[in-house]
Amino acid sequence: MPGAFITIEGLEGVGKSTCLDIIKNELSKHGHKVLVTREPGGTQLGEKLREWILSGEPGSLSAKTEVMLMFAARSHHLEKVIRPALDKDYWVICDRFTDATFAYQGGGRGASREWLENLKKMIHVDLEPHLTLLLDAPAEVGLARIANREADYFEREDKDFYRRVREVYLEISISEPKRVKVINATKPIDQVNDRLIAVINEFLFHRETYL
């Protein structure tokens, strides 16, 4: 079977790392080649940008600068990692993608949706994720889960910022229900995992309905 492009989205503290492992294991169990990557990141350039952004102080970058950095890293990521892997029939699982830019820089920072749409068309008009798993939880829940770790650039934002981010994520899920599947991340971990596996298997065995 040809490869597929699966993305994982959600606020901080919703359990994306665990989700990535569950999906990778499920796909591997069915005999698929799997590549796990992330944004920003995935390439040497992307990882350097990620480190530089996340170590900065909130407010040190404008919304415009954040957007341009994210799309620059994404363009390189697509060129060097994602597209070549898909061409080799890998199943690519990416921790965040363009939906995150619409949510964080659009919803959180107030960047123009029209501008973001135009950049998206320039960078990957011919490639959309085949499936996106949105791990959803209120901002208060996610932030409480990460309260004991050292906060990075985005994690130092307030609850209102994350409420705006979540609102855009949910708007995307409503506008694209075939692609974006919402997973209730407030449920116990075993229930979340069961739901993830069910969605992945639905995609595996009924992929034609997603195209």
In short:
With 211 residues, this protein is of the alpha/beta class.
Describe the structure.
The chain is an alpha/beta fold. The longest helix has 25 residues. Helix content is 54%, strand content 13%. The protein starts with a strand and ends in a 6-residue tail after the last helix. The mean pLDDT is 92. It is globular. Strands 2-3-1-4-5 form a 5-stranded parallel beta sheet, sandwiched between helices.
Helicity, as a percent range: 40-55%
Strand order of the largest sheet: 2-3-1-4-5
Terminal-residue CA separation: 14 Å
Order of helices and strands: EHEHHEHHEHHEH
By helix and strand content, what is the structural category? Answer: alpha/beta
Mean of all residue-level pLDDT scores: 92
Number of helices: 8
* SS strand fraction: 5-15%
Largest sheet: 5 strands, parallel
Cα gyration radius (Å): 16 Å
Key attributes of the depicted protein:
211 residues, alpha/beta, five-stranded parallel beta sheet
Please give the structural blueprint.
Blueprint: E1 5-10, H1 16-29, E2 34-38, H2 44-54, H3 63-87, E3 91-95, H4 98-108, H5 113-124, E4 131-136, H6 139-145, H7 159-175, E5 180-184, H8 189-205
Parallel strand pairs: 1-3, 1-4, 2-3, 4-5
Helix pairs in contact: 1-8, 2-3, 3-4, 3-5, 4-7
